[in-house]
UniProtKB/TrEMBL annotation:
InterPro entries on file: Acyl_CoA_acyltransferase, GNAT_dom, YpeA/RimI_acetyltransf
Signal peptide coordinates: none
Domain N-acetyltransferase intervals: 25-170
Keyword terms of this UniProt record: Acyltransferase, Transferase
Protein name: Ribosomal-protein-alanine N-acetyltransferase
TM helices/strands, residue ranges: none
Annotated SUPFAM superfamilies: Acyl-CoA N-acyltransferases (Nat) (SSF55729)
Organism domain of life: Bacteria
GO molecular function, a single term: acyltransferase activity, transferring groups other than amino-acyl groups
Organism this protein belongs to: Bosea lathyri
Length: 170
């Protein structure tokens, strides 16, 4: 079977694996970003007003990932830029769309956008034990540069370390 026919058949049988597109998000997406953040498993989700303020901040760059022709994002990544550095504040993909490759598509596009804006170093923190996230970041070349003991609160009252990571873009 020709490749294009195989691709069509794969998309027909597995619509969740249809190509994703990325795009810049703005204040119009605040409710969707907040809803996604609440699904992200964080101790405290962001409220729409907080998201609107972040999305309106000129130092903050936010990209979304959209499945096929969807109008609302299935995930987002948000960074704050300062001089030639950026910190990823949050990255979330809807639980229903995890393992579809959306996070890799999203983060790749976001890092390219940061590089185009002159960013040479990107920092982030990830909860120790979040192996899928750690694997994603290491795929892009992030490396551990430190730890914050007891940083993330857990629902049971315990706390988990944050792994500080850095990626050199230049």
């Amino acid at each position: 079977m020709p490749s294009s026919a195989m691709d069509w058949l794969r998309r027909l049988l597995h619509p969740e694996s249809a190509p994703a597109r990325t795009g810049r998000l703005d204040v119009r997406h605040a409710r969707h970003v907040a809803a996604l953040h609440h699904l992200g498993g964080f101790a405290r989700g962001w409220e729409p007003g907080e998201c609107a303020a972040l999305l309106a901040d000129p130092a903050v760059m936010t990209d979304g990932v959209f499945a096929a022709s969807a109008a609302h994002p299935d995930g987002f990544v948000m960074s704050r830029k300062a001089a030639d550095e950026a910190e990823i504040l949050s990255i979330v993909v809807s639980p229903a769309r995890r393992r579809d490759g959306l996070a890799r598509t999203l983060l790749g596009a976001h890092l390219a956008g940061l590089a185009a804006k002159g960013v040479v170093q990107v920092f982030l923190e990830v909860e120790d034990g979040n192996l899928p996230a750690e694997k994603l970041y290491r795929h892009f070349g992030f490396r551990e540069v430190g730890r914050r003991k007891g940083y993330y609160p857990k629902p049971d009252g315990s706390r988990v370390a944050a792994i500080a990571m850095r990626l050199d873009l230049a």
